[in-house]
Description:
Blueprint (H helix, E strand, L loop, with lengths): L16 H8 L7 E5 L10 H11 L3 E9 L23 E2 L7 E5 H7 L11 H11 L3 E11 L9 H18 L5 H15 L3 H16 L10 H9 L7
Parallel strand pairs: 2-5
Antiparallel strand pairs: 1-4, 3-5
Amino acid sequence: GLPAGVRGLHLPENVGIPAGRNAGVPHVEGEYLFFLDDDAWLPDPHLLRTIADRFAADPRLGLIQPRVVDPTGLPSPRRWVPRLRVGDPHQPGPATALWEGAVALPRRVFEATGGWPDEFFYAHEGIDLVWRVWDADRIPWYAADLVAHHPVIDPARHDVYYRLNARNRVWLARRNLPVVLEPLYVGTWVGLTVLRIHDREALGAWFAGLREGIGHRPSGRRRMGWRTVWRMTRAGRPPVI
Length: 241
């Protein structure tokens, strides 16, 4: 069963990862929100207190992601470090992407962003949230001195993964970017995908998702300002890659 003070929330259907996270928010109180995947855990029992203290000490912070470590000592995948140039995972800094399995935000920032993008179902919802934190004039932060545990697993790469990956790349651009940057962002990822993926079936699923993203307009469009584009560029990742 659940520990004392913890309540479960049953959803009658599989609404996807981002919508599932959003569904829990109205059922909790407090100034800060913390999202933790069911296969991640916190080795430090005081970590949430530390995160709350950092938000209180620096009102510019809009999001904190801890460093993710496999408890058995396996090397951490590059995707766990939320920046373009991964470098030393022990080096903190602004986050321009996100590992969604352990994330903290002030509630007011979460509400200002509109929360996780329900429609995405799976893939890239963290990038969408980080972009909107930047556009709320806050700083998403990779706190490398704070640790969350998560096992290293071989991520499944199947047709649904490739389709949603491509569709949500398009929706990221259409929901958030200035019009002139939309084709640059999508075009960059078309080029990278063609270079990286050599399996014909996988490419077919990816391009099917691309067509789906172009053919269906996502809800919640809120184009970031050019000041946000500049701030993200200075942080190491212009929103065209």
